Amino acid sequence: MNQQILKDTIVQLFANGKGLLAMDESNGTCNKRFAEAGIPQTIEMRRQYRELIVTTPGLNESIGGAILYDETIRQQTKDGILMADVLEKAGIIPGIKVDMGAKPMACFPYEKITEGLDGLRERLAEYKQMGVRFAKWRAVIKICTHIPTSSCIQANTHALSRYAALCQEAGIVPIVEPEVLMAGNHTLQQCYDVTEEVLKALFYQLYQFRINLEGIILKPNMVIAGTENATLNNIDEVARATVNCLLASVPATVPAIAFLSGGQSPKDAAAHLNAINKNYKSHLPWIVSFSFARAIQQPALDLWKGQETNVEEAQKILYRRAKLVAAARLGDYDTGMEKSVHFI
Ligand code: 13P
Description:
Layout: H1 3-13, E1 19-22, H2 27-36, H3 43-54, E2 63-68, H4 70-73, H5 83-89, E3 93-97, E4 102-105, E5 108-114, H6 120-129, E6 134-141, H7 150-169, E7 173-180, H8 188-208, E8 217-218, H9 235-249, E9 256-259, H10 266-280, E10 287-292, H11 294-304, H12 311-329
Parallel strand pairs: 1-2, 1-10, 2-3, 3-6, 6-7, 7-8, 8-9, 9-10
Antiparallel strand pairs: 4-5
This protein binds 1,3-dihydroxyacetonephosphate.
């Protein structure tokens, strides 16, 4: 295995203050988002939407890599160009979601285990041929009474490590995503405790599986109170708790952390990422960037509504949202930019 390929890919993904765009919603999740926006849930509408994203002018100013779903990487634009080729031509590295989804964990009601290891070596080889240089696997951990169990944490971090090993063997950078879900009424402290436990278990497993930590990207949640918790999250408090939790759990040899947005509003996700980078820049041994889906895409999806006539405006909003998040990745964002016509 050529370790240098992994390092080079990571440097390129995050060069010049860039981050990642997650546009790898499974068909089920994409259809759910379409249904909420009143868009027909068809393969052709999903193709049109993904074309809107990958052809957005200037997206490469803030996005270094885009994570695709299997359906999308096999699709073409209306001009007959593969989506991955459009991205590559724009200098955006194509990546791929390779897990097969979080399924109910047998004997553990309320918890999930992510599947997809069978045949993964062969799938990675095929994706590599298609130009893919990084991959994603997402585990989900829910906080509620008596959960997460250590069995769920162990099983998911074990699977993440086996996935990471196969990726590195193939010369593909694994994004390792153990997502502690925001859904629930847990406090910020409970999120801190569970996130710390999960990350410590994860790095122990990665070590056991001989993963080269210099060749992974960690994609964690921010440390934040649950969506049903009445306490409002304070921006500086979220930033402080998140940084402390990561410093306690993530080895400094990991080159890059790219947060998921997890259902935070686009503005909240940008404000939190900004505070993390602005307030703690000199304490962070890693690049601290983003790999958002909803917090970059949602306003554009809402505006598009599946209408060809809205494509240009939706692309402008997508471009702008990505620029704002990229500013936050450098600690240069402020809420005044949200309305400023001078920003872009
Ligand atoms: P959100 O930013 O919408 O949480 O999605 C990120 C992601 O890729 C989840 O796997």
